[in-house]
Amino acid sequence: MRVKQTGMDYPTIEDLVGETPLIRLQRLPVPGRNTVLVKLEGNNPAGSVKDRPALSMIQEAERRSEIQPGDTLIEATSGNTGIALAMAAAMKGYRMVLIMPDHMSEERKAAMTAYGAELIEVSKQEGMEGARDLALKMQQEGRGRVLDQFNNSDNPLAHYRGTGPELWRQTGGEITHFISSMGTTGTIMGTSAYLKEVNPGIQIIGLQPAENASIPGIRRWPEAYRPGIFNAAQVDQVMDIGQEEAEKAMRRLAREEGIFCGVSSGGAVAAALKVDREVSGATIVAIICDRGDRYLSTGVFTDMAGVCSP
Question: Which residues form the Tryptophan synthase beta chain-like PALP domain (predicted)?
């Protein structure tokens, strides 16, 4: 059967990363006080904000001739980056080995292997630090190349080139506050770098989990494991987010705004609502970094008691 030649330049999956929607919250903010917006990164092909750095790290390594299709790539991940890298590796023809703590959700693990990645698990006690150590050990043994999202400048580069300019354009330059959870810190570093260039007055707020909170995608890094890409000078305020307030905001987003997202996104919106109560006449933007369907097996959506209270 012949394929009809139409002359159309159809996009590939690679072309669909980025340019995600920015929408206004309608029911959660204080009425008439500020404009509170959220960027729906779950609309990326593999379902999270991590599609951006995953593709960037591979594309830039290819551009420098550091890797080529058929090579083995290795990465430590808590989930979203792993899923995004598994997609990008499948798309570009790489073997992908992912290392993650064993207590992450089953949906995340299943998504990675569905894309053809090999999954290696470390214990909850070893955590991301143990996963990172194992990835480097495998690289030293010649078993593949570590992309190293924590220290790879191509991670924030994706947001400097994409997320930041998109937000500036989508808000017509009116953005006054940008709020993002901090894991690898790539999102906040790259976006901050761009936004501070165009308007140094924009307030950049980063989130870390409160003591004893365990929120996928947000970390309080020990000094020895702090991401090399992180620059504290690019963040105006660091805010602690508790487990309960992040989960409560996540449930309220689903029930009251129709936005189905994960716990770290709930934390970002909880922070945005705090800012909303403290300022007026502002345009506040928070990152909704992924979709809620990859957390269903954890039970975080099953306790809906009290979600309608502010």
Answer: 13-290
